[in-house]
Design a protein that fits this description.
With 568 residues, this protein is α/β, with parallel strands linked by helices. The chain folds into three domains: 190 residues, ANL, N-terminal domain (Rossmann fold), CATH 3.40.50; 181 residues, Rossmann fold, CATH 3.40.50; 114 residues, GMP Synthetase, Chain A, domain 3 (2-Layer Sandwich). It is built from 17 helices and 25 strands.
């Protein structure tokens, strides 16, 4: 974390200093479009903030952003915190009922939204925000709710701001301190109880400053943004971090397909991308493995360590080309990475870092640093600079216990929930993450799963279902899986890749296709069990015919299925 009398740990300070340092460099924009410069971004942020204040908003007021990624999203957020407002980012995938709950609890004064999201606020009555601004300039034909377009609002704001600047009538914004709230975010965790996390300016900026020490990033480097900004993972690492360093953010818009992603990367040639494991796991299964499987020579080579590494290295070069040929690092977080995929990335010499964190820690707890040869495969690397990590309630036989973290990134607390806050953060400032892990001799943090997910068998053995799921998910015909306990037995539910199976069984009758899939499920059970202790083997493996319901970072919401084992 930077030190000195002139450094202030606020988002406003970052934008002010970046404007002074990087002025005419490109700051943010949609991919393949002309970016807004740091000078222009600062001007827009101040103008919008002044206009929001003129509309009656003041320090401490909450403003929601319910929208897909865009440079307008970031501009709107920065305008809110400029006058001391509190941003309430809402995940665009949330259903209408959840949106209503958040808006009702937060009592927001204004909301920035889009055409795809606005119908979620149609039925609001008493909790409807007074000011609705559409970031994509959508206007409802019915005029309900009454909206203002972002470009119209911005144009009027800029005209007024520049006129006042010309006459010397400078706008005075409220003083914003590092301990003032910057965001209230609702977690999308797997436990089933979404909590409102309060994050201060210092929580967010300290985490960005810590992340900036993980690797050297040159001015002008392109960050391609593909994850929702309403999640702290992308917000801190893919938004605040590049703005801190003078990089340029190119927004892909909605989550791109592999073909669209490849086209965007070819044009933008990104230096850095933050992604969830699913992105790389899909590319590995859909593009890498099929090329190996269809060649008898490559299959033969992969049976030997040296041969496999040669094949993977060539595949790694093609993967780097897929991402534009200029990728210096891909940050992977939000969920655990499959060990088989990570082994491929290492042998492919593909530049990546695995990170670990939570919304409550803004979000990074551990990751990297990039280039550290002591980072163990399967770990999340070292604790972030400025963050302390310890393991509590350690099992003396395994070294595994609950991960606790402490640092300037630890949240202020849960909104309107002092009891849960006190249970989560100790008087000494340690946050209990609810995750199980261990620290190895090199200081690497290994994540074993959620405390609540442990399955205790009749033998007393602790089963970590995520570890078994990784083995299952390594099969090319498996999209995702879930391991649960059912009457003293372990069973697994598997959602197959039906395109893969259709290709293999093309021309066969329905009964033949059914028999083929049943055979795959049984073969999987036998093969996976070979690598498991006798007390943790799968009794049965069932087909699931639709995807599991997941969080924003693609973690399965386990609480929806654990109770219903046989009917999942």
């Amino acid at each position: 974390m930077p030190e000195g009398p002139d450094v202030r740990m606020t988002l406003n300070y970052i934008i002010d200093s970046s404007k002074s340092t990087f002025g005419d460099l490109g700051a943010i924009g949609m991919a393949m479009d002309q970016p807004v410069t740091y000078e222009e971004l600062h001007e827009r942020v101040c103008a919008l903030a002044a206009s929001l204040m003129a509309k009656g908003l003041s320090k401490g007021d909450r403003v929601a952003i319910l929208a897909e990624n865009s440079h307008h999203w970031g501009t709107a957020y920065l305008a809110v915190v400029r006058f001391g407002g509190v941003g309430v980012p809402i995940l665009p995938d949330l259903p209408e009922a959840d949106v209503h709950h958040i808006l009702g609890e937060m009592k927001v004064k204004a909301i920035f939204t889009t055409q795809r999201q606005i119908e979620k606020i149609y039925d609001l009555r008493s909790d409807r925000p007074e000011l609705v601004i559409t970031l994509d300039d959508f206007r409802s034909a019915e005029g309900l709710p009454a909206t203002e377009t972002f470009s119209g609002f911005l144009e009027a704001a800029l005209a007024d701001y520049l006129e006042r600047a010309h006459t010397g009538d400078l706008i005075e914004f409220p003083e914003v301190g590092e301990d003032d709230l910057a965001s209230i975010l609702y977690t999308s965790g797997t436990s089933g109880f979404s909590k409102a996390v309060m994050l201060s300016h210092k929580n967010l900026t300290s985490n960005a400053f810590g992340a900036s020490r993980l690797m050297e990033i040159p001015q002008g480097a392109v960050f391609l943004s593909i994850l929702p900004m309403s999640h702290t993972y992308e917000f801190t690492t893919g938004f605040i971090l590049p703005l801190l360093l003078g990089a340029r953010i190119a927004y892909a818009g909605k989550t791109p397909t592999p073909a669209i992603l490849q086209n965007l990367c070819k044009h933008e040639k990104p230096y850095l991308i933050f992604a969830v494991p699913l992105v790389l796991e899909k590319i590995y299964k859909k593009r890498v493995l099929p090329n190996i499987e269809k060649s008898w020579l490559l299959r033969l080579l992969c049976k030997f360590n040296r041969g496999r590494k040669i094949v993977h290295r060539k595949a790694g070069k093609k993967l780097t080309e897929f991402f534009g040929g200029n990728l210096a690092m891909m940050g992977i977080g939000g969920a655990s990475l499959n060990p088989e995929v990570e082994q491929f990335l290492v042998e492919a010499e593909f530049p990546y870092l695995v990170g670990y964190g939570q919304t409550e820690t803004a979000p990074l707890i551990a990751g990297g640093p990039f280039g550290d040869t002591t980072i163990a495969l399967g770990s999340t690397g070292k604790p972030l600079p400025g963050v302390e990590v310890k393991i509590e309630d350690v099992n003396p036989e395994t070294g595994i216990g609950e991960i606790h973290a402490r640092g300037p990134n630890v949240m202020v607390g849960y909104y309107n929930d002092e009891e849960t806050t006190a249970e989560t953060i100790s008087l000494e400032g340690w946050l209990a993450t609810g995750d199980l892990g261990m620290l190895d001799e090199q200081g690497n943090l290994h994540i074993m799963g959620r405390c609540k997910n442990i399955i205790v068998m009749a033998s007393g053995e602790n089963i970590y279902p995520e570890a078994i799921e990784h083995k299952i998910n390594a099969y090319p015909w498996v999209v995702e899986s879930l391991v649960v306990e059912d009457n003293g037995r372990l069973i697994a539910w598997v959602y197959p890749d039906y395109e893969y199976i259709d290709e293999i069984t093309a021309g066969q009758m329905r009964t033949q296709r059914r028999d083929y899939l049943d055979g795959l499920l049984e073969e999987l059970r036998r093969e996976v069990n070979v690598g498991l202790a006798s007390t943790s083997r799968l009794a049965e493996v069932f087909e699931r015919r639709e995807p599991f319901i997941k969080t924003a970072t693609h973690k399965i919401k386990r609480y929806l299925y654990d109770r219903y084992a046989k009917i999942a």
